[in-house]
Amino acid sequence: MADDDTLPEYRTGSDSRTLRDALGCFATGVTVVTCFDSDGSPMGITANSFTSVSLDPPLLLVCIHKHSACASALLASEHFAVNVLQTWQQPASIRFSTRQEDRFGANDWSRGEFGAPVLQESLSVFECERNAVHEGGDHHILIGRVVKASFNPELDPLLYFRGKYRRLHFD
Ligand SMILES: Cc1cc2nc3c(=O)[nH]c(=O)nc-3n(C[C@H](O)[C@H](O)[C@H](O)COP(=O)(O)O)c2cc1C
């Protein structure tokens, strides 16, 4: 094991790359957060900042970078959906995190019951009403009230750890 003196360390004001690397040690799932913009076009962004907040009332949150092309649509939309990706949706994660592509073109999606785009074949889908938006530095903290949740118990999650996609490992 590495000596503590040689371990990477972030302090206030130092290189934010080290902070990103430290945060990247927290393994997560991967979601695509979707809504319709004011023209009725589907919008979506890959996000792993998803967290459950409360069961009663049923609340969740996702953090959206203020410079994201989706930010204004997500903040303006009454409804959004969080699509939790499964192992084989890695191409969707890449597509929804890359600029200038038609993100929905190659993805099977439909209009969800509560007016947000839903990606087919997702591990789980949370359809939400916008509940609150909080300031979070360079991100907006978007809180949704879950109005519908569905999941496929037979699928495995797409994971993200240290900047790479991973799969579950079973002993
Ligand atoms: C695995 C993964 C997780 C990400 N999580 C977030 C996130 O939680 N919030 C966010 O704003 N961006 C996140 N991003 C980056 C956005 O997906 C990306 O910057 C964005 O889609 C850029 O395009 P846009 O400005 O057109 O939205 C993530 C990217 C990847 C690959």
From TrEMBL:
Transmembrane segments: none annotated. Keywords: Oxidoreductase. It comes from the Bacteria. The keyword Aminoacyl-tRNA synthetase does not apply. Pfam families: Flavin_Reduct. SUPFAM superfamilies: FMN-binding split barrel. Residues 23-167 form the Flavin reductase like domain. The keyword Nucleotide-binding does not apply. Belongs to the non-flavoprotein flavin reductase family. This is Flavin reductase family protein. It comes from Sphingomonas sediminicola.
